[in-house]
Amino acid sequence: MQIFADLFQRYGFDLLSGTWLTVQLVAISAVLGLCLAIPVALARLSENRLVAGLASGYSLFFRGTPLLVQIFLVYYGLGQFDFVRSSFLWPVLREAYVCALITFVLNTAAYSGEIVRGGILAVPKGEIEAARACGMAMAKTYRLVILPRAFSICLPAYSNEVIILMKGTSLASTITLLELTGVARLAASATYQPIQVFVIAGVIYYLLTLLISWIFRLLEARYNRYITQAR
Amino acid sequence: MGPVTEYLPLLLLGLATTLKLAVSTAVLGLILGLLLALAKLSRHGWLSRPAYWVTNFLRGIPEFLVLLVIYFGGTQMLGQVFGDRAPDISPFFAGLAALTLVFGSYASETFRAAFQSVPKGQIEAGRAYGFSAWQCFRYIQLPQIWRVAIPGLGNLWQGSVKDTALVSVIGLDDVMRKAQQAAQSTREPFTFYLVASLMFLIITLVSMWIIAKAEKRASRGMPGAR
After folding, report:
1. Which domains does chain B have, with CATH numbers?
2. Predicted ipTM?
3. CATH superfamily label, A2-230
4. Contacts of A188 in chain B (CB under 8 A)
């Protein structure tokens, strides 16, 4: 126990700031990823074969390859091209933080796109027909009926995706970011006590997992309250 | 395309390591998952409760962290036991241990759900005919769980193949690391990481095809089987 107290004294602040960076990465990627997931899902369902094909190609690539390769492709790979290096975006794209975020957003959007697509397909046909019969245009039907319904159908599956995303952010440590795993790796090699340090990091990650599932339980209770009332 | 053809043999060598790790993980992970599922379904609290604790914890932390604990923590422990003459832990063994633990934890949930999907009446009938508990397990439950478990296990396999890439970080010579080496010496990182990702994509596509076949085979003879 003495060891843990010493570790907290020396690395408590670093671990806390690492946790904060992890939370940041998860929150920003989850929000932006969900925003991108909706157009991806709509494109997947499009009747235009080209649009649907492009979207499913994107989805297949990001779901079929390791996250680590994707991070390296963005962080190390983009610099290979002269037009990227000479563009005005290069100072931004060189940042590990930005590269990690881009990768996480693209990755989680591919997975969430599938979840949203499933949600849209699960909206009962009758509700869509009813909305159309009331004179709603297709765009309005999507905005007021299909997407809100799909959202509440998706919530349980989406909470799993956010937990997977949180676990994926640990890979940001491979491109020099000092999030929770990055801080733990530094502390482990500085103190020669990897087990103790990684156990602390593991407990923090586990608490974050519990936090995410608790937030989603609240959201589910809120957005599916018409179902609980009906029982 | 020049440098790619030049480095292709090296990358294929890495691919063999990746596949070896993935297949060994799946085999050991299935066994561990089955054992953990039986522990969870056990009547004895001292057996089922720790199984839930361990698997819930392992499913709630990053796979990468599990790998780091086993690799660096294992070295630390061996160092404490053997002193200066401690043997090194090979990246392959550390990767195998970490990925097996993760695979087993997830698989135990899949198997548990699958076991619970077999109607109780069948087991009661088996016992009434004089089957032992082992015979009920072997001849009634085990053949039926695959139909429910294969889709979930298929997803686990796909995830586990992709997780093998993490082991390159601690020095396993897999596709990922070979691509890294090629990227460094040719200064064409995008090309080689893209090639590595395409190799993973091919494994994913072939696996999808095999899993679909296995699903079809496991549910043959079921009413309404797809």
Report:
1. 2-218 (1.10.3720.10)
2. 0.91
3. MetI-like (1.10.3720.10)
4. 68, 72
